Fold:
Amino acid sequence: MNVLRSPHLCAAAVCVGIAAANLARLPRAAIALAVAVALVAAATDASRRALVLATALALTGWWWGSARLDALDHSVLLARVGTAERSHLVVTGPARLSPFQMRLPAEVTRFGLLRFHEPVLLELPLGRAPPQGALLEAITTVRLPRPASHGFDERAWLRHQGIHVVLRADRWTLAGHRGGLWGVADRLRAALARSTARGLHGERGGVVEGVVLGDEQALSANLRDRFRASGLYHLLAVSGQNVALVAAGTLVLAWLIGLPRWLGQVAALAAIGGYVLAVGPQPSVVRAGVAGALGSIAWLAARPADRWYFLLLAGLVLLAWNPYDVLDAGFQLSFAAVAAIFLLVPRFAARLEGYPVPGKLAAALAVSTACGLVTAPILWLQFHAVPMLTVPANAFAEPAVAPLLYLAFAAAAAALLFPPAAAAIAWVNGWCAAYLAGCARFFGGLPGAQVRSGRSLLIVLALASLGAAYAWRRWQSSPRST
Structure:
């Protein structure tokens, strides 16, 4: 087998190599070893060439992952903890509010007389929040992140994002807004936030913004907890369904206008890129964006699409930028859920055939069951909590998810042409948002909706094992056609 004709092996080898850097880091000289292995592969027989070249690619990925982790672990401000200077900063994400303060991701461009670029967590007093992309001037004090408490290690969590210090400021001054590509992303995000939930307030606007942009900060802490307990929290993270709707809507619009299919695919590529920029580098949206873009490119190139290859390439893009992502709960949940959809959903759907279950409901049950089973161990390891009612909760919520997304994007399109229509569409969409919030409150508020203790989890696993054994025995003893 020729490894160059097996792109799955190439992509998987590099991904494994990059992820291995989290266990041990290779020196820069290791790239010479990878080159030597590749040269040896060229001289070996064809039967072993694939394995040797895959080893060379894994070593290259391991070297790259080590270099990226060294860059992420480098900090200028870590040696200046406890000092205060006038700083210039760029706000790089939305604000997160707590009862006592406001915290936002930012990037320092100047600290005193020093000029450099380093991501930080900025703490500001409660009040007006600076928008994403704002250029700030403030006198900041360098502090260390909070130590580990109640099972959460903030220092490790921030370090995996390349953030090593917290800057505290009592006052700030707006000095402008950033430009370039990220400035375009800021304006796109602001435009989507205004148009998709135009006229909506409170939890309805918060649910729409959470589903469309992955920002759930407008929701109350109680409602966010209910979304988690019910197993519906994934709806507040941008998924492949959002990206698919963006691409499909662009293709339909191009068809209505009368554009040729190839131009529609180019427009879909641009729409996907703009949406990913607006939402930000969340693992789920980057994965979906890469897959959607590759699908359009495959059509333009008249090449068959391969969903597993697309999934591997999406993982490669994320890990190449930040190898720590393999430890991130969002990365793990997103890729595990997609793999479950590829592997388990067809089998579960086949089991439901013959039962009096409508097709769409059967599909929702198959997807929620497969994803729930695969993500449960990750949820327990990362958060020590597993939602037990995720299957019925998702089955009830599913009918409102697609309409909410369709109406949100329709409102965004209408805002460009006739703003009053956007407000009317958003008002209708508010009922979809209210329904999703109601599902989260109902299922998340039921007794036993979420397992948090090890003893309860063991009881649930024992009952599930007994039920699985009984079902297997019934299936084995039932007559089957030959």
In short: The two ends are 37 Å apart (CA to CA). The mean pLDDT is 83.
